[in-house]
Design a protein that fits this description.
Largest sheet: 13 strands, parallel
Distance between the termini: 43 Å
Oligomer: single chain
Strand content: 25-35%
Helix content: under 10%
Number of helices: 7
Length: 512
């Protein structure tokens, strides 16, 4: 498994999208039961932060009854005792630094129902020699109150839950200073009140072979300073970085997290994700976008505080003379689709506070990126509406239903009751950092594409039910529609033909 992908793109420039070594698209419309909303009551915008890394909850000071005690003075004690104990065993790691055997493939192969509890000061350290900490396909493993650090996972692989097993609970843990991803994800995995800090690539790589992640919960964590190896510099256009990357996840609750100071994007949902609730988070000071929702479906993004994001990447492109509206919330070829089972049939962005970011929300669609197009380099993947990629070919793609269903469409995006605040003296920019946008490129590729010319630009701006309304703007905002050459003030934005932001208020001189 290896995730590679593009960065942003504009006009007819080819996109280098995420590539996986997975062989095909196994997700289907309506597959899997959507998680309930019982635990995700609407939260107010985040005003407090989950300072988990500075103040982690302490584990048990004494071994729980029946637990197997693990000795930090014995190298490999944890792996050996796991091997010799039955499934469902509780292990208590004494205070101190625990180590595995000094072999890159030495690891703890967990058994079903095992529980690993760290005493105060218990650390599992890979010494930059071991690739993986916890692995195996056993379900329902718990890792609690344990620091896992200095493992050397290869790119796109993870240190904790390396084999993407289902039902794991990672709670009050510190997973930090590892190469690759701090952890992988399986179906019904819960990551709570944990510190995902300073990992070389991702804090978590939410990818599972076979695209079978369902019901993922990520709550009350601190996700900070990941991508220390700066993979976008080492592999330009790989798109393989950020705080958390989600791939083909069906049903996710992302709430109450402090996602900050990551190199690249904070949260990035890419490729056939569906049914996300992203709420009550503080997304702050990430080098790139706070949130990217890309080639995916049906999400509620509400009551988040989003501030000081995208200063590094936004400024970098502006300094190069690139006038694309690189955004803090970036919706790319993603939208609401009623035919795909979820708790909503749109992408709703509401009740958020965006303050002093580099740009606001961009709704983008690449006219050349569709199922079976060479410009879509997510090998073997199609939209969730078309099971057979080969169907998206001429002449059938030029007529209904494939003309619509072979495209990942930015549609049914409802942006309302948000506060967009911008003080250009804080962000230190003049004009390029205060834009909202809904646009597409001029379709040119491939030769048999039915989406050439302005068709997609016209559709995303006028026909796909993308709507801003009832928002509050403070600061010098401008608005981009259809293509980067068309920039408007609020009066033009609200007027014909766009008729956006009905019921919204604008105070141009009021900063953040």
């Amino acid at each position: 498994m290896g995730i590679k992908r593009r960065h942003w793109a504009w006009a007819a420039a080819p996109l280098a999208l995420v590539l996986l070594t997975a062989t095909g698209c196994t997700s289907t419309p309506g597959a899997g039961a959507a998680p309930t909303d019982a635990s995700s009551a609407s939260r107010a915008p985040a005003t407090s932060v989950a300072r988990v890394c500075a103040k982690p909850a302490a584990g048990p000071a004494k071994a729980p009854a029946g637990a197997v005690t693990v000795d930090p003075g014995v190298v490999g004690d944890l792996a050996e005792k796991t091997k010799s104990s039955p499934p469902g065993t509780t292990f208590w790691l004494r205070p101190g630094t625990h180590r595995l055997e000094p072999d890159r493939y030495a690891q703890v192969i967990a058994k079903q129902g095992n529980r690993y509890l760290g005493a105060p000061g218990a650390v599992l350290d890979g010494g930059k020699k071991n690739n993986y900490a916890f692995s195996g396909t056993a379900r329902d493993v718990t890792i609690r109150s344990l620091t896992v650090q200095h493992f050397a996972a290869p790119p796109d692989e993870g240190v904790v839950n390396h084999d993407m097993a289902d039902g794991w609970l990672i709670e009050h843990a510190k997973i930090q200073y590892n190469s690759g991803a701090g952890l992988m994800a399986g179906a019904h995995q819960h990551v709570r009140a944990s510190c995902l800090r300073g990992n070389g690539q991702y804090g978590m790589n939410a990818y599972k072979t076979g695209d079978s992640i369902r019901g993922l919960v990520v709550e009350d964590n601190e996700i900070v300073g990941n991508n220390t190896d700066d993979w976008e510099r080492r592999k330009p256009g790989c798109g393989c970085t950020g705080g958390i990357k989600f791939w083909a996840v069906n049903g996710a609750e992302i709430r109450g997290n402090w996602v900050h100071d990551n190199r690249g994007a904070g949260l990035w949902a890419d490729n056939n994700n569906n049914d996300f609730r992203i709420e009550g988070n503080l997304l702050e000071a990430n080098d790139g976008a706070a949130l990217m929702y890309e080639t995916s479906y049906n999400a509620v993004i509400r009551n988040n505080t989003v501030r000081r994001n995208n200063w590094v990447e936004g400024r970098k492109y502006a300094d190069r003379g690139d006038n694309f509206p690189y955004a803090t919330i970036y919706v790319s070829e993603a939208g609401g689709e009623p035919r795909i089972r979820a708790r909503t049939d749109k992408i709703e962005i509401r009740g958020n506070v965006l303050e002093n970011n580099w740009n606001g929300i961009t709704l983008w669609e690449n006219a050349d990126r569709f199922c079976n197009s060479p410009a879509n380099t997510s090998t073997g993947y199609c939209t969730l509406l078309v099971k057979d990629t080969k169907r998206c070919a001429k002449p059938a793609i030029a007529t209904a239903p494939l003309y619509a269903d072979c495209r990942w469409k930015t549609q049914r995006v409802d942006i309302h009751d948000n506060r967009f605040l911008l003080d250009t003296s804080v962000v230190k920019c003049e004009t390029e950092c205060g834009r909202m946008a809904v646009l597409a490129n001029y379709g040119t590729y491939p030769k048999w594409s039915p989406y050439k010319g302005k068709r997609v630009a016209d559709a995303i701006a006028h026909k796909q039910h993308n709507r801003w309304h009832d928002n509050v703007y403070g600061g010098p905002w401008s608005f981009v529609a259809e293509n980067t050459d068309q920039r408007f003030d609020s009066v033009q934005w609200q007027g014909t033909p766009y008729r956006q932001d009905a019921g919204s208020t604008f105070t141009p001189r009021a900063g953040g």
